[in-house]
Amino acid sequence: MLNLNDLAGSGGRTDVLVRAVNAALFVSHGIRTDSHVTLHLMGGPGPPRRVLFDGSALRGVRPDERSIAGHIKALLNSPVPPVGRFVEVSTGISHSGGDLQQTLVEWQNEGVGRFVLDAAGGHLSTIPSTGPMGFILSDDCPFTEEESDMIGGLPRVSLGKGWLQGHACITIVHYLLDQSLDRCSPQE
Ligand SMILES: C[S@@+](CC[C@H](N)C(=O)[O-])C[C@H]1O[C@@H](n2cnc3c(N)ncnc32)[C@H](O)[C@@H]1O
């Protein structure tokens, strides 16, 4: 049971996940409509569940940890949908069965460039940006051996030699991508 008053204890570091959602989608007084974030809920009873927050559609979610966690808690009462079929539970929030491997396959089919965030990787500027980009990061724990195998062949992006918290990484990636978009925009 996820306790909204104890996100760091009762629900397996749900605080880490909701901070990632916050960093991925929220700006001051707005939402990044060009971004979405997929959480992989691998713990607890039952099959793996993925939760997709789609910034282009999201409504009714405030940028605070309790609000985001409340939406996650609500969907935990519904059975996990079949692998690969996302079922909307509220506007801009949907869930599906499947694990990281399934997400990697879907991203590949959708033409999303796949990159692993890793302190030992290369700088983002060395990677050609050719359309939508997806970044994979772990939560408070390292990737499992199985997940490491899934992402083994993918290019790695470093945001510095020191290990950072996941939500900080997401903010930095947005900053770097925003900068490169600014450079590509036609001058007034
Ligand atoms: C809190 S860190 C995980 C720390 C965990 N103890 C470990 O050893 O993997 C969460 C994720 O943020 C990303 N990350 C953290 N620091 C990074 C950095 N300097 N460059 C790129 N990605 C980083 C990685 O994807 C990492 O798996």
Descriptors for this entry?
alpha/beta; 3-stranded parallel sheet; 188 residues; single chain; binds S-adenosylmethionine; Alpha/beta knot; 9 strands; 4-stranded antiparallel sheet
Describe this structure in words.
The protein has 188 residues and is of the alpha/beta class. It has two domains: 98 residues, SPOUT methyltransferase, trefoil knot domain (Alpha/beta knot, 3-Layer(aba) Sandwich), CATH 3.40.1280; 90 residues, SPOUT methyltransferase, trefoil knot domain (Alpha/beta knot). It has a four-stranded antiparallel sheet. Helix 1 crosses helix 2. 23% of the residues are buried. The mean pLDDT is 91.
Structural topology:
Elements: H1 14-25, E1 26-27, E2 30-31, E3 36-41, E4 49-54, H2 65-75, E5 87-90, E6 93-97, H3 100-109, E7 113-122, E8 133-136, H4 145-150, E9 156-157, H5 166-184
Parallel strand pairs: 7-8, 7-9
Antiparallel strand pairs: 1-2, 3-4, 4-6, 5-6
Helix pairs in contact: 1-2, 1-5
S-adenosylmethionine binds at residues 117-119, 137-138, 140-142, 158-160, 162-166, 169.
